[in-house]
TrEMBL record:
Belongs to the peptidase M14 family. This is M14 family metallocarboxypeptidase. It comes from Fluctibacter corallii. Residues 26-308 form the Peptidase M14 domain. InterPro entries: Peptidase_M14. Residues 1-20 are annotated as: Disordered. CDD domains: M14_REP34-like (cd06231). PROSITE patterns: PEPTIDASE_M14. It comes from the Bacteria.
Length: 308
C-alpha cells in the first residue's frame, strides 16, 4: 500500500477543528441534480410499487426529501428484502442500480416477498459527489444510536418497524480511484492520522459480515454478477483493499462494530456490493447492471434457500 501525509486542509497529525470542516465544506459544489437523476425517476414507478417520504435533510440552503419504496400490496408476514443505495453519495451505480431494480425488476418478486428500497440515502453527497455529509461525517460509519449522521438516523428510524422481518439486506456501493486520490487522504487529514492508501481492485467484489459469513449466499451473488462484469482478483498479497479474501471476490468486515449500513439489521443474509466504475472494462450501464444482478442474485438465492 502507498501512503501520503499531506492534504490541503488542516495540519499533519492534528484532527480538524470546526474551521477546517468549514473550509472543506466551502470547497464543495453541486455537480448533478438529485431532482433530475433520482426524484424524477421515482415519480414514474410501476403501479405495483409505492413510495413514502421518511424524512428530509435541510443542508446548505437545500431541502432533500428521502424516500422508501415498497410493494403497494404489502404481504403481511412475508419476509422483507431490503436494498439501500447512495449511503455514499459519490457511488453512482448504487443509486442508479437501486432505481433500475425498482423500475424494471422488482415486479418479478412482489407476489411472494416484500421489497423495501432506500435508493439514495445521502442526496447532498450525491449532488456534490461526496463520501461525507456537509458536516464531514461518513454516514456509512454512523449506523448506531445515537447516530452523528442524520442520514443514518433517519433511515434507522424508518426501518425500525420492519427489523424483525428483514431477511436479506443488499447495500450497494462502489470502490473508485477517488478513494485514493481524495477520500482516504481527506479522512486521514480530518482525523489527524497518516494516510494509507489501498490497492484499488479492478473489478467487482463483496463485503460480507465477519460474524455472519453465509458463504453459499455470497458465492451466489458473485456468480450472478460474473455474468455481467468481471470479479476483482486479489492483489499480490492475496488481499482486496488490504483485507484477506475469504472466498472468490469476497472479504469480510465487522459491520456492526464499524457502524456500517450493512450492520444495522439482524438479517440472516447481508452483503455489500463494491463496483469498480473506473475499470477500462466497465461502462456506466455495466456498473448499474452489476448492481441489479447482485440484488437479483441475492433474492433468488434466499427464496430458494428458504423455500419462499
Amino acid at each position: 500500500m502507498n501512503h501520503s501525509t499531506t492534504y490541503p486542509i488542516g495540519n499533519p497529525g492534528q484532527p480538524w477543528d470546526e474551521s477546517h470542516k468549514t473550509q472543506w465544506l466551502s470547497n464543495q459544489s453541486i455537480q448533478r441534480s438529485y431532482l433530475e437523476e433520482v426524484l424524477s425517476k421515482l415519480a414514474v414507478l410501476p403501479d405495483c410499487l409505492d413510495k413514502s417520504e421518511y424524512g428530509q435533510l435541510d443542508y446548505v440552503n437545500n431541502v432533500y426529501p428521502l424516500y422508501l419504496v415498497k410493494n403497494r400490496q404489502w404481504i403481511d408476514g412475508a419476509p422483507i428484502f431490503l436494498v439501500t443505495g447512495g449511503v455514499h453519495g459519490y457511488e453512482t451505480s448504487g443509486v442508479q442500480g437501486a432505481i433500475h431494480f425498482l423500475l424494471y425488476d422488482a415486479q418479478d418478486y412482489i407476489d411472494k416477498v416484500n421489497i423495501l428500497v432506500a435508493p439514495c440515502v445521502s442526496p447532498w453527497a450525491y449532488e456534490t459527489i461526496n463520501r461525507w455529509n456537509p458536516h464531514a461525517i461518513d454516514p456509512n460509519r454512523s449506523f448506531f444510536s445515537p447516530s452523528p449522521a442524520r442520514e443514518s438516523a433517519l433511515l434507522m428510524n424508518a426501518l425500525a418497524p420492519y427489523l424483525d422481518e428483514i431477511i436479506c439486506h443488499v447495500d450497494l456501493h462502489e470502490t473508485t480511484d477517488t478513494d485514493n486520490s481524495e477520500f482516504r487522504p481527506a479522512l486521514a487529514a480530518r482525523d489527524g492520522k497518516v494516510n494509507h492508501n489501498w490497492n484499488i481492485p479492478d473489478g467487482f467484489y463483496l463485503v460480507g459480515d465477519t460474524h455472519n459469513l453465509q458463504p453459499a449466499f455470497q458465492n451466489a451473488v458473485i456468480d450472478a454478477v460474473e455474468q455481467v462484469t468481471h470479479i476483482a482478483p486479489p492483489d499480490n498479497d492475496g488481499k482486496i483493499i488490504g483485507v484477506p479474501i475469504d472466498l472468490k471476490g469476497v472479504i469480510n468486515y465487522d459491520k456492526k462494530a464499524l457502524g456500517l449500513c450493512g450492520g444495522m439489521t439482524n438479517a440472516s443474509y447481508v452483503t455489500t456490493t463494491e463496483v469498480y466504475p473506473d475499470s477500462e472494462s466497465a461502462t456506466p450501464d455495466m456498473c448499474i447492471d452489476a448492481q441489479v444482478a447482485a440484488i437479483r442474485g441475492a433474492i433468488d438465492f434466499v427464496i430458494g434457500q428458504e423455500n419462499i
